[in-house]
Amino acid sequence: MRNRKILWLSLLVLIVIVLAIVLTPVFLIMPFKAQTPRIVEVSYLMRRWSPVVTILASLLILTLTVMLWLGGRWWSRIVLVLLLVPVFAATWLARQNHFEWMFSPLPNPAYASAAETTFVNNDDRVMSVTIGNESVAYPIRLMGYHHVVQDTVGGTPIVATY
């Protein structure tokens, strides 16, 4: 009985580790959220190690699940199966680049002259580009969500990024 409790505890600790290493960077690196260099460093370190850690932890979790399955009651087997779902989801997510999901390029940018815009306030920060006689401005407030806009300014194709 004591061994089963240790196995259950080990299983739950490993599940928390898998979820933490995958989900922590998702919540730390978000648009318009305060980020220190240390937070970014830790997030990218976790992203770098999460594919390896999740595979190793998933193998250990599967081993513990099999050990707990044998001799377990029907309700504990249901719990074991339910606990595997977030583990496998996190293992899959560790191999995805969720930053691309959050920071996707603006698909169909619309342009307006400065006199026509009502969505940019006088005190809004903008990124501006001038090539030849043509100037454009990209509001930081909008760029923070998409991070990339392909454009042509003064006849020259550019990519504005934030």
Describe the model.
The protein has helices at residues 2-28, 37-69, 74-93, 98-102, 140-146; strands at residues 126-131, 134-139, 148-153, 156-161. The N and C termini lie far apart (57 Å). It has a two-stranded antiparallel sheet with strand order 1-2. Strands 3-4 form a two-stranded antiparallel ribbon. With 162 residues, it is of the alpha+beta class.
The total strand number stands at 4
Euclidean distance between termini CA atoms: 57 Å
* Range of helix content: 55-70%
Shape: rod-shaped
Determine the strand fraction and express it as a percent band.
5-15%
Order of helices and strands: HHHHEEHEE
Instruction: State the low-pLDDT regions, or none.
Output: none
List keywords for this structure.
rod-shaped; alpha+beta; 5 helices; two-stranded antiparallel sheet; 162 residues
List the helices and strands and how they pair.
Layout: H1 2-28, H2 37-69, H3 74-93, H4 98-102, E1 126-131, E2 134-139, H5 140-146, E3 148-153, E4 156-161
Antiparallel strand pairs: 1-2, 3-4
Helix pairs in contact: 1-2, 1-3, 2-3
